[in-house]
Amino acid sequence: MYLKIEDKRIYYNIQKSGSNRAIIFVHGSGGDSNTWKNQAKLDIEYDVISFDLPSHGKSSKYLELSLDLYVEVLNHLIHFLNYEEVVLCGHSLGGAIVQSYYYLYPKRVKALILIGTGSRLRVSPVILDSLKSNYHEYLKALPSVEFSKSTSVDIINDYVKETSTVGANVTFKDFSICDAFDTMEKTTSINIPCLIIVGKGDKLTPIKYSEFFHNKIENSDLHIIDDAGHMVMLEKPVEVNNTLKSFITNRL
Q1: d(CA 209, CA 197)
Q2: Beta-sheet strand order (sheet of 47-51)
Q3: Strand runs labelled E in the chain
Q4: Where on the phi/psi map is residue 8: left (φ > 0), alpha (ψ -120 to 50), or beta?
Q5: pLDDT at 233
Q6: What is the arithmetic mean of pLDDT over 111-133?
Q7: Cβ-count burial of 4 within 10 angstroms (0-12 exposed, 13-18 middle, 19+ buried)?
Q8: Count of domains observed in the chain
Q9: CATH code where residue 192 lies
Q10: Domain span at 30
Q11: pLDDT value at position 249?
Q12: How far apart are CA 120 and CA 183, in angstroms?
């Protein structure tokens, strides 16, 4: 399905539950809504929604990409779908987006779910340089950077194939947005239920990022998942889904 914003279209996928509540999943750098394919049919009394950020997946191309644009598109989607209660779940860059949305509109968010992300998301210059100078080498390095050594080759190859369609320029912009993101001083102001999930082997957003959230957000749960890296929702879908379902069922 598509949301129309002026002359642009934003693709979104929705699994309806008959409820007036929704959980919206926001993907990370160089990804698209398919990142959440294993969460699309969560057995919960919430509609489950994922969408492609501008210039990603099936959404329209934009000349200029920014964190403000991504937050604005999320806001358009929330207004368009008109739910009484919204839970926002973001991975990596998506985590920056949902945090930023919450800081702007705290009363519109029932809970936050932060997966493999941080309140500051500095990016290695090596990653940024490879995106600008040698995209093939960037894609070649993805398995060792974003996944646990124990993760299935098929899962890794599928992800690399998908992210390669987004392209170097958009992915570079995404990581540049991450590199500039820093809301550490605001973290203690998050006063809604917050679920924090991280892969034990996450190299891009290490466990200490999630522990910072847990220490600063009073109403938070932290789950560290073994044998998983940065793409924990793809690597360990059963564990992630069980954790999501338990949080939504017992804490909201």
Answers
A1: 11
A2: 2-5, 8-15, 47-51, 21-26, 85-91, 111-115, 194-199, 220-225
A3: 2-5, 8-15, 21-26, 47-51, 85-91, 111-115, 194-199, 220-225
A4: beta
A5: 98
A6: 97
A7: exposed
A8: 1
A9: 3.40.50.1820
A10: 2-251
A11: 95
A12: 6
